[in-house]
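Box S2. Input/output pair 1.
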Amino acid sequence: MGKINTILLDCDNTLVLSEELAFEGCADLINEIAKTKNVPLQQPFTGESLIIEFVGQNFRGMMVSLQKRYGFDMTPAELDDYVRREEDVVIAKLREKLVACPGVDDVLAKLAASGQYKLAVVSSSALRRVKASVEKVGQAKYFGDDIYSAATSLPTPTSKPDPAIYLHAMKQLGKTADECVAVEDSKSGTLSGTRAGIKVIGYVGPYKEAEREKMVKILKDAGAVVIMQDWSEFEDCLAKIERGEV
């Protein structure tokens, strides 16, 4: 096994507590689309109901799923327009209210100070949104230009669980899968990293207590080799992987 020298981090609800804010903005827009397209929703989507269903998927991915489910169509131009609008709505919310995940800043500072690891962000969200997020909470200094977005950085936009964004990030960084560890909080993200051959730490910190036990199982089933309840456990989780125990 190669020596681990690269930590690839998901952004939403791994570095920053953005999912609830983002899904609030997103729900408003999806309800508007449903009205425009005469889609009979049983009840309007809320941030919370969207999260339960689509955590880890980007807006484009959600739209594809919803079109299939409700049998409506959208032209590529329409979809692009909504994707841009969703980005604007969400970025405005994040700039106003976003905070970092508890304990992550200490870990990033320590990793950066050690000089042993390359740090990069690998997200499904649009690049502009990811950059706005890490800038707002003061984490941008750890990543420089090493921020990769499944929605923006690839020739064809995609979303996790497709491993394309992890494969792209490793190629850009000149790293192999056994030099990397990923941190992910969702099933789709964990599958994406695992399918790219990377060992994934599953992070369940931001989930409500009632959801947490279920998420531990979901992330393990998706391939996470170790589960982290809180960022204070990161060093232990990484050490386990580095020793080859998991």
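Box S3. Input/output pair 2.
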Amino acid sequence: MKKNPVFVAMCNQKGGVGKSAMTILLAGYYHYLKGLNVAVVDCDYPQYSLIRLKERDMRTVENSEYFKQQMINQWNRIQKKAYPIVGAEAEKARDAADKLAKEGDYDLIIVDLPGTVNSRGVFNTIVNMDYVITPIAPDRIVMQSSLAFSTTVIDYSKKRKDVPVKDFLFFWNKKDGRASTEVFDTYNLIMKKMELTVLDTVVPHTNRYDKELSLLTKNYFRCTLMPPPAKALKGSGLAELAEELIVKLNLK
């Protein structure tokens, strides 16, 4: 029987909060480690940064005997191809996601929306997802922008019974354990009073999230063809975030 995928938008109109990195990392975790079938819609038009990342990953594997062997081992273990990444303008993202769902058998389709999401077309894309995931960072400018846009969309969705979006899920990303917790504590309290859904997982600020496949080293974290290595997952917060989202998104 063909599955009914969960449609999720990774969205924040403020750039630099880790939307694209989290899209790739969550997609890889679910697709390669948890046995779910995942697809991604890259809305970074016209650069399509996630598609370019996959192209870089493929070139690196082609030129590395080590990573070729890693891919062979993965295939022998899970017998799965890499998850697809398709490009679409943000206004047409739901159409692209629907096409993927029609042509494939997916559990989860993640739409990575661009930083500028205040046009009417993008607004409609967001409210026509099943869930919206919004990474936030403990920075006043980021939080003011994030909450201003998110609450506008949430208020709209509550007034309209015909939109499918079920919940808006916020999670703290890039939290520096050495920095002051004033902004973090203040906005946690504000979001609690606003009755927003904030995930328990707090993802720490760590350089490992920037490490791609490279011919110069065997160390990587962010990759479209393989999940993060088990050793690198420890302390990253990614596994905890992914497992919490499995429950919130009803992916079991």
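Caption for Box S3: The beta strands are 6-10, 38-42, 85-87, 108-112, 131-136, 167-175, 197-204. The two ends are 17 Å apart (CA to CA).
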